[in-house]
Amino acid sequence: MWDKPEALNAIANALFGVAFLLVLYAGFVFVVHLPVFPLREVRLVQPPKFVQRAEIEAVVKRELLGTFFTIDLARARNGLEALPWVRKADVRRQWPDRLEVRLEEHEPLARWGTMGLVNVQGEVFQANYGGILPVFNGPAGASKEMAIQYAYFLKSLEPLGQKPVQVNVSPRRAWSLRVESGMMLELGRNDLENRLGRFVQNYERAAAMLERRVDYVDLRYTNGFAVRVPELARAEAKEKRR
Q1: Residues 132, 166: one domain?
Q2: Would you place residue 21 in the very low, low, confident or very high pLDDT band (cuts 50, 70, 90)?
Q3: Residue 57 sits in which domain range?
């Protein structure tokens, strides 16, 4: 090889090119670390509904360290997503000295027992919320399924002017729900849609015949449902005590 000047020249040119790139890279690293590229502004694309600005400012002060080029965007995103009401965060550089922050907040759908909240995607999260929400009670991992069923229950009960205020599912997947009037509906494990549809279709006629308030309905029957009337239950208990 030493007697081949063309090969030696090619190797020398390649080494020179690598050296030039290394010098260029070192110069770039040096320049981007200079304080002449400070970050001057952090802009929220949309004002948050639940996240407090003080929380965002705390993350900015703690996580956004360095210049426009050296700020760790992944670290900033993780810091924002650790805030209670933030579901997802997107952080992008905007030349010459600004960061653009876009937050996707959790939209609360229900309370998860007494342990947290459920968003509209059916995900459980922890945050403080003072508004009125329905309550979901179920085993771990059931929140998404319950969010889907809640939407169905809500739509199905519209003809009766009722809304679910509590949805329960047991570890064996037996469903029940309580509506605004206080009435409890026992749906069981199977055929939930048909059972609830049959109840909605026939309830007003059945209630008119009873002419009394119903507090419990058992829908786990093939061709009908059973109701419990508080007045009759009290009268029966009184009669038994005599």
Answers
A1: yes
A2: very low
A3: 41-105
Q: Are residues 98 and 47 in the same domain?
A: yes
pLDDT digits (tens, 9 = 90+) for 127-166: 999 999 999 999 999 999 999 999 999 999 999 999 999 9
Q: How many domains, in total, are found in the chain? A: 2
Nearest to 59 by CA among 86, 93, 98, 21: 86
Share of the chain above pLDDT 70, in %: 79
CA 38, CA 111: separation in Å to the nearest integer? 43
In single-letter form, the type of residue at position 230 comes to: P
Please name the helix (run of DSSP H) or strand (run of DSSP E) that holds residue 31, with its range, or none. Answer: helix 5-32
Task: Evaluate whether 204 touches 211 at the Cβ level (below 8 Å).
Answer: no
Q: Are residues 93 and 170 in the same domain?
A: no
E strand intervals along the chain: 41-44, 86-94, 98-105, 108-112, 116-119, 124-125, 135-137, 164-169, 175-179, 184-188, 216-218, 226-228
Do 85 and 169 sit in the same domain of this protein?
no
Question: Same structural domain for residues 85 and 145?
Answer: no
Cis peptide before 47 (omega within 30 of 0): no
184, 177 contact by CB (below 8 A): yes
The whole-angstrom separation of Cα 75 and Cα 39 is: 16
Q: What is the largest CA-CA distance in the chain?
A: 122
| 59 neighbors 99 (Cβ within 8 angstroms) | no
Indicate the range of 55-59, 61-65, 143-147, 199-203 predicted with least confidence.
61-65
